[in-house]
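BUG: 3D viewer hangs when loading the predicted structure for this chain

Environment: internal workstation, default settings.
Expected: structure renders.
Actual: progress bar stalls at 90%.

Input used:
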Amino acid sequence: MINPRQTGNHRTYTVATLLAWISLGTVVSAQDNESQRTAMLDRATAAELNTPYEAPPGDALSHHTSGFAKTLCSAIFVTGLEADFAAENVGFFSAPYEHRQHVVQREVDRDTRQVHLTLPNGVIRTAKFNGDHGCVTLPIGEDDVFFEPVEIETTLPDPSGLAWPMGDVLAEDPLPDELDQELIAKAMDAAFTPADGMTAAFVVTHKGRIIGERYGPGISMHTPLESWSMGKSLTATLMAVLIQQGVYDLYQPAPVPEWQSPNDARQAIRIADILRMSSGLRFRAPQDPDIDPSLGYPDHLYVYTGTVNSFEWAATRPQQWPPNTIGRYRNSDPVLINYLVRLGVENRGEEYLSFPQRQLFDKIGIRGMVLETDPYGNYLLQGYELAPARDWARLGNLYLQDGVWMGERILPEGWSNFVSSLAPAWESDGRPIYGGFFWINGTETFPVPRDAYYMAGAGGQTTLIIPSHDMVVVRQGHYAGSRAGGLALRNALTLLMDAVPASTP
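Structure tokens produced before the viewer hung:
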């Protein structure tokens, strides 16, 4: 049974949600909290360890073009979008729009399923569709990946004849009387209003049943959509599967091979610390409150675009702070958890790349998730995954049921409580917004009860779990519409809170 440290979830805070842009596509200002920000930075400075920083190699334009190539490749060959539409509207996080303008030639090779982008200096960045592993950007000068792809096969039967959630068939009986169907319909309309919010999918479940569902133009219940950092919550889930199976313990020191030399201080970092974004590793991210652009390209993006062994890069970073001391939203931590997942699976003699489908997806009805890798076959589930909205709804409902699915315990007892409890290092900074690779609604980022917690991805990708209402709400959209889409989501949620009463204990 997982027993998280229970602190601070229901206090009243005035701190702004500094990282709300991840879920809403907007930056929330800390204008009234400069003193708190100063105190936060002072606390980090006091805890600072005297370790060197090594910036990632390569120039920003090449890296951003690497991200652009991958984004286009996935949008075209996984989601099925048109290239021009994708170039204008999809996946700005690892490929900022202003950098896309430097591409002098764009070639989409539908025969080989590759995207080639040429820069003014003649450098070509190529992303290749890699079968069931989606797309990957290749290192400059390489024409293939450095691992043997596998076919990801599901054991699940055809979903067209199976009832939800294991299949596609929805119940036909009327919704319960306590649900206001008119307000639910208005909420569905609100989620897609205005049109420039570019909402692509909106799915609402109550007590596991789909009570609202709608898709944008060209999108269906089977379309894998960009999901970005919702993959971090999936990463937590894969680790939970291994903990439930006895491979790891939540509070054990993380057995990262690169940390096992005598007197390596990183041996004190626990798996729980990493899941709480408080490993303390020196790893720069654009959303760091004291980010210094002069230090070079951020590591946070490099593990997407660097076409290197991402696990090795993260594992070889030194400590910046003692573990469980300072909370920062950095991709070092989900990359490391994915590294541990690979080690745990392979150390017991199993094939790694099919592990998520075999040990998680097949158990809860997921057939459509596409998990992408670096060129070395490491899953980049800090944000490189695409999935239909219904599959995120299934995952959300697994958490709503504390890891039990149709009588089988898949995640450890209490795991939902762990991921939705305020991380101690974040509480120390007065930021009640982060748990265990899940965001928490401690500052009421969303107009739903504070017991809600959620998966969030750049560009407005959101899966909200609302235990007090037995609800899961999934919203996915094209990145360019994230600002308006975030407001649309808020409006829809306000209506849903009136449409669906709180559950009786």
